[in-house]
Amino acid sequence: MKFLNSVQPIHVVLALLLVIAGITAFVLLSEPPAGATGVPHETIAGLSVGGDAGLTLEALGSAPFYFQIAVILLSGVLLYMGVAAHRRDHRLRLFFLLGIGFAIFSWVALFLTYELWVTSGKTTVFMGFPTPTNWMFWGIWGSFAAFDLFYVIFFRRYFLPPEDEQAFNDLMDEIKAEGGDA
Q1: For residue 42, is it within any domain?
Q2: Same-domain status, 77 and 125
Q3: How do beta strands 129-130 and 39-40 pair?
Q4: Are residues 6 and 29 in the same domain?
Q5: For each of the chain's 182 residues, which pLDDT tens digit applies?
Q6: Domain containing 180: what range?
Q7: What is the pTM of this model?
Q8: Could you tell me if 98 and 172 lie in one domain?
């Protein structure tokens, strides 16, 4: 537990960037999957259509899955670092854990439903869209929209409380009184 208390958010950012760089290097050094740039259309010369999505996933393995998890975690940590360290309380940590947890849950659901479609050719439709599309729109996008709402609703608590605004105004008045350019 002592180790966890000594880990700073910036250390987590560094670790996640290294993971992202490692996955990126793996993908760049991998052989391109067959049909990655498309395959010739059967009847229209010069037109290419998408290749086999299953072969793309097969060639890269789980790299895209873990890459996106690392990106979600990185986004959450960077947003968390946007709050001054002395204002990071248990409520904030709980909100970020739940928000990031929901984003990861949505990503796992999206990936698994897409993988199911790629392997079986079957998907369900919800609200007029395939299930993976709904997970992308309502889950991934929606989970980070919650962080936007958090910023708006809790702006005065975590980002610019009245006492900080007053201290800033006092400083500006002092600079103006000394003849400074404010």
Answers
A1: no
A2: no
A3: unpaired
A4: yes
A5: 566 567 899 999 999 999 999 999 998 998 877 777 777 888 888 787 776 667 667 778 889 999 999 999 999 999 999 999 999 999 999 999 999 999 999 999 999 988 888 888 788 888 888 888 888 888 888 888 888 898 899 999 998 899 999 999 999 998 988 876 66
A6: 90-182
A7: 0.80
A8: yes
Helix axes 63-81, 53-60, angle to 10 degrees: 70
- Return the sign of the alpha-carbon dihedral for residues 165, 171, 174, 175: negative
14 shares its domain with 63: yes
- The shares of helix, strand and coil residues in the chain, as percent rounded to the nearest 5, are 70, 5, 25
Split into its structural domains, the chain has a count of 2
What letter represents residue 35's amino acid? G
- Residue 146 has, within 13 A of its CA and on its CB side, a CA count of 16
* In contact, 148 and 103? CB cutoff 8 Å: no
The neighbour count for residue 148, using CB atoms within 10 Å, is 10
The rounded distance, in Å, linking the Cα atoms of 71 and 106 is 13
Strand-pair category, 129-130 with 48-49: unpaired
Beta strands (DSSP E) in 18-87 are 39-40, 48-49
Together in a domain, 73 and 139:
no
